[in-house]
Amino acid sequence: MPDSIKLLCEIQNIDIEIERLEKEKLRHKKDLDGMEAGSNKIREEIEARRKELEVLRLGKKDREEKLRENREKIEKDQKRANELKTEKQFAALTKEVSNAQKASKLLDIEINAIAEKCEGIGNDIEEKEKTLAEKEERRSLMGEEFEKRKTGWESARKEEENKREAISKALDPRLLKRYETIKTRRGGVGVANVKNETCLGCYIQIPPQVFIQLRKGSKEIITCPHCHRILYFEDTSPALASASTVKD
User: Which option is the CATH number for 3-168: 1.10.287.1490, 1.10.357.10, 3.40.630.30, 2.160.10.10?
Assistant: First the structure.
């Protein structure tokens, strides 16, 4: 394998590692953001329930005031009954008191129903606040862990970038640019090994004459006729490995 291709392989491995570090960081950041979004959703739900509770409490208060007024009126009317002089007046007052009593019963039912709803909403808010507190605690721990690991990711990336810069200086700028172009177009992989006459970049068989050139260790830059990645051949067969061991 030509030295220039070996260097390109090293650069590609560095690029893959840099991408892995970045993806790992982004994945953890996404998880952190997801937890924050979940907490915000619960906060919105709590706020909506509190508003709902406030409306119900105002409605309950309004009905309680009406009930108080009704009861006061009934009490006054009942005291006034002894002062009436005609049957007609007494019948009208009795009907008025009866209607007020019915209205009071209805108000009493509504007040109790609202009180039950308020209790249910209050319990729901309490549960949501407990869930929010648990989520906030987990998010806080995750945030601390993310900040610690972020330093490591950035340090590792900087180290890889320095290695890449040093290797790049030993390469022909035109070849490096060619690799960069292919890598951008081919999902981050610009150099591919060939095994069993097949490009491991696109998994399509290459022409026999191309494979022969690669096996001979041609110094010419050879690309896959299908995916256009820069090709290299690295014999990793057991026979070669044994021979290398004996030689060493």
Answer: 1.10.287.1490
pLDDT in tens, 74-126: 888 888 877 777 888 888 888 888 999 999 999 999 999 999 999 999 999 99
Pairing of strands 191-195, 198-199: antiparallel
Q: Report H helices in 81-193.
A: 87-168, 173-185
Query: Rounded to whole angstroms, how far apart are CA atoms 29 and 182?
Result: 29
Tell me the C-alpha distance between 160 and 166, whole Å.
10
Query: pTM of the entire structure?
Result: 0.67
Residue 198: beta bridge partners? Answer: 195, 205
192 token code pair: 């591919």
102 neighbors 67 (Cβ within 8 angstroms): no
Tens digit of each residue's pLDDT (9 = 90 or more) over 7-43: 999 999 999 999 999 999 999 999 999 999 999 999 9
**Nearest-CA neighbor of 119 among 127, 130, 131?**
127
Q: How far is residue 85's CA from residue 90's CA, in Å, rounded to a whole number?
A: 8
> Are 231 and 204 contacting, i.e. CB atoms less than 8 angstroms apart?
no
Return the structure tokens found at 138.
Answer: 């987990």
Q: Are 206 and 198 in contact (CB under 8 A)?
A: yes
Question: Which ranges in the chain are annotated with CATH 1.10.287.1490?
Answer: 3-168
